[in-house]
Write a structure and sequence with these properties.
It is a single chain. Helix 1 runs parallel beside helix 2. The protein has a single domain, classed as 60s Ribosomal Protein L30, Chain: A (2-Layer Sandwich). The chain is α+β, with helices and mostly antiparallel strands and 129 residues long. Strand 4, helix 2 and strand 5 form a beta-alpha-beta unit. The strands form two sheets. A four-stranded mixed sheet has the order 3-6-4-5. Strands 1-2 form a two-stranded antiparallel sheet. It is globular. It comes from Pigmentiphaga humi. This is Enamine/imine deaminase. Belongs to the RutC family.
Length: 129
């Protein structure tokens, strides 16, 4: 799958590890992943050590679903991040940049009042295989 990264100077530059837009060919399979929070798969319990641990576990859970769908992180074209504390936006960006390969997918980040099980972070994705 080839991704075409869309960028224009007529809109604000990305303020993190994401692209303004991503175009993909019409062929292939589009997979819409449900949101993942930092639950440990073995226990179903929230990883509560730190915000960073929750972010890393949520991305690990997302990657497991991506792989089960037959894809890779390179094929993610859109992410949505949900944070209960937007002051941790920079930390989420740093972790995402370590996990998601470039060129980065399109992304939205949303501040929310609460997430299931008291999570501080959730990620959902769209990929094209």
């Amino acid at each position: 799958m080839s991704k075409q990264i869309i960028h224009t100077d007529a809109a604000p530059a990305a303020v993190g590890p994401y692209s303004q837009a991503v175009a993909v060919p019409a062929s292939g399979k589009t997979v819409y992943l449900s949101g993942q929070i930092g639950l440990a798969p073995a226990t179903g319990e929230l990883v509560t050590a730190s915000f960073e641990a929750q972010v890393r576990q949520a991305f690990a859970n997302m990657e497991a679903v991506v792989r089960q769908a037959g894809g890779t992180l390179d094929q993610v074209v859109k992410l949505t991040l949900f944070l209960t504390d937007l002051s941790k936006f920079g930390t989420a960006n740093e972790i995402m940049a370590q996990i998601i390969p470039q060129p980065f997918p399109a992304r939205s980040t949303v501040g929310v009042a609460a997430l299931p099980k008291g999570a501080e972070f959730e990620v959902e994705a769209v990929l094209v295989i």
